[in-house]
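> tool_call: predict_assembly(chains=three)
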Amino acid sequence: MSKRKIKVLVAKPGLDGHDRGAKTVATVLRDQGMEVVYTGLHQTPEMIAEVALQEDVDVVGLSILSGAHMSLFPRIREELKARGMGHVLLTGGGIIPVEDMETLHSQGFAKLFGPGTNTVEIAEWIQAEVEKLWSEEGAKQ
Amino acid sequence: MKPSTQDQSTSEARVVSSNGRAKWEAASAKAKLRDANFTTISGSELKPVYGPEDAEFDYDTDLGHPGQFPFTRGVHPTMYRGRLWTMRQFAGFGTAAQTNERFKFLLDHGQTGLSVAFDFPTLMGYDSDQPHSLGEVGQVGVAISSLEDMEILMGGIPMDRVSTSMTINGPAPILLAFYIACGENQGIDPAKLRGTVQNDILKEYQAQHAWLVPAEPALRMITDAMSYCAEHVPQWNTISISGYHIREAGSTAAQELAFTLANGMEYVAHGVAAGMDVDEFAPRLSFFFDSHLDFFEEICKFRAARRIWARKMRDVFGAKDPKSWMIRFHTQTAGVSLTAQQPENNIVRTAMEAMAAVLGGTQSLHTNSMDETLSLPTEKAVKIALRTQQIIAEETEVAHVADPLAGSYFVEAQTDRLEAEAEKYFEEIERRGGVVACTEAGYIQREIHHSAVTYQRAIESGAKKVVGVNTYVEGKDAKPEIDIHRIDPEVEREQCARLASLRERRDAQAAKSALDGVRAACKDGSNLLERFVTAAHAYCTLGEITEVLREEFGEYKEPKIL
Amino acid sequence: MRDPKTIAAKLFEGDRLALSRSISWAEDADPRFPKTLACIWERVGKARRLGVTGPPGAGKSTLVNELARHLREADRTVGILAIDPSSPFSGGALLGDRIRMEDRTKDSGVFIRSMASRESHGGLARASVDACDVMDAFGFDEILVETVGVGQAEYDIVGAADTVLVVLCPGAGDGIQAMKAGLLEVADILVVNKSDLPGADRLQTDLEEATHTRDIRRDGWEVPVVGVSAAKDEGLDKLLGAVDDHRAHLERVGLEAVRRQKRAQQVKRVVGERLDEELWGDGGLGGRVDSALNAGSTAYDIAELLLQDVLGGKLMAQTRDSKTEAAH
């Protein structure tokens, strides 16, 4: 019988076309047994949140290298909340200065990864975080 | 390559050397080796030493003197003795006025050509005030939404005396039209404008992903630009066929070489199919490559590129003008090789990559700044990057001799290998129905993705070492002590306000009829660049023009790669 | 949204999160799903279900996207289910079909769900029919299901859809290969996509000939071959016309009976799965098989013995029950 699988949305907000990191991470997460939805490029915050809802994902991972993260990330979070998806594990990576990572973390982003991060570490971190969320959920039931 | 005819004395030398080889093999079989992967950065196996048996070439047909077919040794007879390469730092951020200041700073510090980086909205053909542009205006390049922005960008810069490179693709012909119109308003005849517009849409679909319309109309716009410029802007390079982004997206050196040249051949085929004589436009084609960390593989890649292109142009496309055979290229050091960890080390990486580009015979060079994995480069970092080139040019004495590594067994063997690998890809692409079909089906993108993942795995398994990332690592949470260059959000507001006021100020009727002219050309097949120039003069905005194109031609959609 | 009743009520109110969540429950074999389905069952059955299958590279996702666009223009709401294969090595999956359906993401009259095939091998996921049922109860007029598409006939789609489109394109796999792979037997409508490419006419003729000369169907439906270019928006109206025709045909021969037949297949499958788990899961018969093999019995003998035990036991229990009843 099916066992619950971690479902991740890997999304590229904004206009930058650098999808090497996003696709590599998506592939690694698949290889770690997760089900990964990849949106393609140039997604607006509304589209990302809508896909997260339709796919009922556990995790939303954003990849951005355009410098627009401080405008786009908080809006994505708002759009997710507006759709009742405020519970997802919200993470991401790209060229994001450390201070910005701290600001976003204080706004509810779980963790953001910079260039050079080991992708298997990302997968293991997601695994651990989602299992935590699931066990909290199970406790509530 | 074809074995050269050997005379008696070389054959005897061979016998002696093969005895030496047997001894060497015996000795090296016993030697203890380091625990390392002995491959190129692209994963190609390397022998411990290369000898005459690895590099058999005919000097005249495979190498040729510099400036002679097949140009393996360079495109100019004297190479850098005549003129150093153009030091061209890619720059652009914020508003046109801010970038104009940076341009003047670079020109004052000895830079010899301009290179414009545009922001993402501009690259995608959006105006700064369109919804997609939110948060992106001026972030990674300068925002240019109209001729007015271009006029500010080039203000006080003599456009007939600098050459300008514009890195833009989907909407490239429109930006070129802004540039031509800007020159005309400065009183400069388009025939005197010099520069390059990247305009390489195929690699956008494949790797860089700033696209506009589907392949067919996009290729038509490129052909329109080629024929318009051949007539009116003869010193302009209408396309810069780029491997840089393919490499940065994760390809190997051989893939960069193969896909770039395959794209180049596709453009040539389109030009010919549109009725142009190959020698009419081929001399204005230019190329753009990456220079990565594998010193010798990169040098050999540049050499192989020249040889392949010369052979294809002469033998496949029947070009007669030697200028059509020569590949002239710009090089940028590898952005992907830079690390966020211990960022000062990036100065060293960039220096080595720059050296490879120079030894490989590049015509112009951009050196990356050490802080680019963290943010836009600061002025100090940009200056160090430029100084790196100047040190190579002035202090190392490497620029005095053309193609100094030719004849090295290793270098010739690697050059041959890269050529052979590229040829294999050309066959495969042909078998799959050509470059456009391969791109639309995602074949090229998947090949690149596969290489990117392989490389990432090698780093993560430790098979590939990167200083500061998986070896000689410093404290994990050590924050880099480096200044961050930020774009003031005011830039976006200022830019949007100016755009709104432009729409008020301009002659609305002229703008409308210019846009109608663009639409008419989309339908009737007349030259689009001509209409773009008219639209530029009428201060139509970039977003208004691309909207017409999107309506008429549709939007490109990316294929499923994963 | 933690219990079946609430989620069913929300679903009826048009809550998309409830729709999405109940599909997840179906996928994860959450015990709440059968109860949820029971709560919404009264509303299942209104939607038209269209299956799209075919070899890789035939342009299935693009076709689904364009079909959805045309249906939306006709004011029909659309639910889309796109299946991608799970990796047999890691169990993970890359779900990338919706990249070709991006325009539809912005449309509130469309709902797209990607699904990994997990341990199923018939072209769909175990929960595909469940997901269609939920979308149906939610109120979508049309449900489009895109199969994994590995190039083999994917028979599961026949059970899940009222009308099955088999999409082929010139080059990617010619008509003869499609016949060999059994794709034709699955089709209610054959679609030649990329009909502007060289070879399309030939493929169309081959397919027409095949459908005429081979006696594939027994219900009187003649499988049409429709040429389209999904990317260029050509021929879609004709294709939707063929779908309407097939629908009318089903109604003539008795749509409900056809659907009951298909539903019976689902029952069989569920029974099979449950039995499988009972027989071979923890505390099942695995140990006995092992020791019997160890003792040198043949596979057939062991199987016979176990079947007698399992079925005989049940039959005996039934007989015992009826005997007790008789005694009263």
